[in-house]
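ugh ok so i messed up the first submission bc i forgot one of the chains. this is the corrected input, ALL of the components this time, i swear. 641 residues overall. if the numbers dont match what u have on ur side tell me asap before i send this to the collaborators (the ones from the other lab, u know who)
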Amino acid sequence: MGIHSIANMCAHLQNATRARLGITSLPNTKYNLHLALALQRAGFIASVTRGGPHPPAPEEFQTLEPEPVTTANAATRRLWVQLKYWNNEPVLRNMQSVSKPSRRVTADLNQIGRVARGFEAGMHKGLNLGECMFLSTDRGVLEVREALEKKVGGLVLCRVS
Amino acid sequence: MSAARPAARSLFSRHLACPSIAGFVSPSASPASCRSFHASPQLAAGRTKPARKNKGLSLVNEPGKKPWPEKQIREITAKKFPQYTPEELAELSKIYTKEQMASLQAGEAAIDPRDLTIQGRLRKDPYRINYLDDFSTIQPVIDKRPKRNQAPDPMARFMDLDHFTRDLIEWADQFEVGEVTGTLKKLEDFVPVEFRDKSEAQWPGKVRTDAHESYMAYLQEEAAKGKDGKSAQGGDRLLRGPTDADILSYILRRSSMTDKGLISNSEMAPGLPNKVPGVEGMYKNPVDPEDEGLDEEGKYQDLKVRTGMTVKEILNLRTVVVSRRWVSNQTRLGKVGGTSIAVIAGNEKGWLGLGVAYSTEPSEAMNKALLKSIENMKPILRYEDRTTYGNLECKISGTVVRLFARPPGFGLRVPHQIFEIARAAGIQDLAARIPRSRNSLNTAKATVQALQNQRSPEEIAMGRGKKLVDVRKVYYGGQL
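and heres the new structure output, hopefully the right one now
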């Protein structure tokens, strides 16, 4: 359970940046939150905030102290994401999910090393210029270079460029 | 003849056909009954009745017949053929010139109205026209177009050199040039008196040379005077030669044949000469001395302004035709064929442009495509001035082009259209694949688009807020 929401998230973020939206929201799941935080670390999105059905005010995005999730409000919680644009072009252009619930794709440390250097490894194609791959490891959701630094492999979630 | 006659005339013809009204016209010979609507002659076999003796068409004073009384003849003459009244003459003289009036009156005087009365009658010969007309007006549909000029001279030939020279001299003689006033001195005036009667060949050498020298000096002096307009001997007359209009008329109108300039009935308008005197050189494109004579036709002048390049730089660009197609425009008049040409232009230093142009004339299409491609040139990103930044992909229609950056020394291992484009752009290491349609025009478009739309790593890094370092350069200590 959970990995299907990653696929939805990929498609949704790609649609949102192509529509030149400033902010958008995602379902509040653990997987989505961790991937969103990894995207933020990689610089693809500006910020992630947990909020209600309505977005927080733009100035509150960085500072907002989210109210704790309770059984009363859990169903209405959403992740609000600020998208980034540079020179009139979206920073996040393509976001393709790799694993899906019926077929989970993993990459071990060897493969990660090759892929990060731009070579193909197994079924993984090498990363192109400016491309990132996100993995779900036992150290959390990491970008491929972070995973390489920490020497962990894991489940390949998506490729972003 | 299919042309309709005016109704009045047809009515008149029918009246003539009726013997009770115009008693002197035979019904069988009446114009209406003879009127044919086709070109073939009538069959004689169809006539069963023998032609009746025509009494009505006899002359007034036919021999063996009682002549008309003189009084009746005078009456009819005065009624049918009256003289012009002074008022009518005054009206006519408003329309016609004096000469025309004189000839009109001479014509009137030449024919006695009495003769018209006693001799005039309707024609009944086989060559008569089958309608009544006095031919005073030209009806464009029925009548042939009048030929105002004579037929061309059958003996006329193109002038040979002698003819031409004589003709030219004849033409030039109508202009007063130079020694027409008789006031200029001649060569003989510059020799001593004793030699004046002798011919030039008999003069001693010294005398002859002196005479020539002083004569030339005199002529130059006179010419200078003429130019200043100060000559006491009619200087402006001295200079009056054929004007530009005269020369143009000589070129256009003067016959080049030995027909003495006969104007004949020709459908051909005289052609324009290549160089019209007086206009020649006035509408020439100003030649920029910066071009060093490389662009005499002015082909690149517009492009020079648009691109800011010199003609030499433009000519040094690498241009290649990447696609040439025969295309047709289907109109209601049928298919109109034309050529569509795609040209790649590049300076081999990172500038690349594609121009596509169409024209019914292939050379014109080529020209247009060339100029467009140069105008469309844009800088492209090149990694280390030899390959692309990463792998690129672009899709135009059914054509997908994938370009792969390659290490130094790899070379251009690419399909031929992409090879030309890469060479024009100055890329030396590249691999490519065209997995789907290999249409040459779309391949060229997709390749150019892929190369021109590259994102630079700096731009990506700035967008993501990251610091970027090219490891290759760091590792080799900036030696690359």
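quick check: The longest strand of chain B covers residues 318-331. that seems consistent at least. Residues 102 and 118 of chain B are 27 Å apart (CA to CA).
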